[in-house]
Amino acid sequence: MARSIFITGASSGLGEAIAVEFARRGYAVAIAARRVERIETLAPRLKELGAAAVLPLALDVTEFASIDAALERAAREFGRLDIVVANAGVGYTLPVGRGKFEQMRQTIDTNLTGAIATIEFALPRLRAQGGGQVVAITSVAGSRGMPYLGAYSAAKAGLHRYVQAVRAEVRHEPIVVTELAPGYIDTDMNRGAKSRPFVIPLEQGGAILARMIERGVGHRYVPVWPWALLAPLVKLLPTRLIAPPPRKN
User: Is residue 226 reached through a cis peptide bond, with omega within 30 degrees of 0 on the bond before it?
Assistant: First the structure.
C-alpha cells in the first residue's frame, strides 16, 4: 500500500508545492483547501506526476469540527494517514490599532487555532494506527514581532511553542513531530512585500520541505542557510532597527 499524506492549504503556495513533490514520490495525496476549484484542477496534475491516489477535500480550517471529518474521510479512502501537514495560512499586512481586528482574528484562527486543531484531530488517528507524523509549517517571522505582521508573527510563534509541547508529550510514542520554518519562498502570499531577503523559487522550496518531511526532522529553517544563523539574530535586534518610519498624517 502506498504511503499517504494529508495537506491543508493545498490550493496554492507551499501546500501545493508539497503536494506536487509527494505526488512525484508516489504517495496517496489528500489535498484540502477552501478554494475547491483550485484543488479540483490540481488533482489530475498530481495523478499525472505519479500520485498513487488523489483526494481533493473542501476544507476551511477555521471551521474546526470539519477538520476531523476531512481527516476521517482521507483515512477511510487511503486506509491510513502516514503524514498530516498543518500548512493552511493567511498573511496580511496589518498595522496595529487601525481597524484591522477582523483580519487579525482571521489570521489567528487560521494560522494558529486551525493548525492546532489539525494536529489535535490527527493525533488520535495516528495513535490508533500505530504511529505516523505531524508537520507544522511555521515561519522565521515567528522569531519576533515584526511591524505590520503582529498577528502573523504571534500566530507562528504560538504554533512553534505548541509544537514543542507536542514533541515533548509524544516523545515515547511512535509519532514524529516536524516543524518547518520557511524564510521567503516565492508565493502569492509574499509577492507584494517591499523586501524579500534571500527569497528562493517555490519549486526549490517545495523540494526542500518534502525532503525534510521524509527525513522526519524535528525543527528546521527553510532553506537552512542563511536562516539558521539569521533567525536567532533577529531576536536580538533593537526595536529601532526594525521600526518603520513615522506615519504621515
Answer: yes
Peptide bond into 223 cis (omega under 30): yes
* Angstrom distance (rounded) from CA 231 to CA 82: 30
Asked whether residue 247 is assigned to any structural domain, the reply reads no
What is the number of domains present in the chain? 1
Contacts of 168 (CB under 8 A, 6+ apart): none
The tens digit of pLDDT for each residue in 14-25 reads: 999 999 999 999
The distance from CA 154 to its chain's CA centroid, rounded to whole angstroms, is 15
Helix axes 36-49, 13-24, angle to 10 degrees: 20
Cα–Cα dist 30/81, whole Å: 9
Q: Residue 139: how many CA atoms within 13 Å on its side-chain side?
A: 26
Question: Which positions are catalytic?
Answer: 152
CA distance 21 to 209: 9
CATH number reported for the structural domain that contains residue 21 in this entry: 3.40.50.720
pLDDT tens digit sequence for 137-184? 999 999 999 999 999 999 999 999 999 999 999 999 999 999 999 999
Number of H helices, E strands in the chain: 9, 7
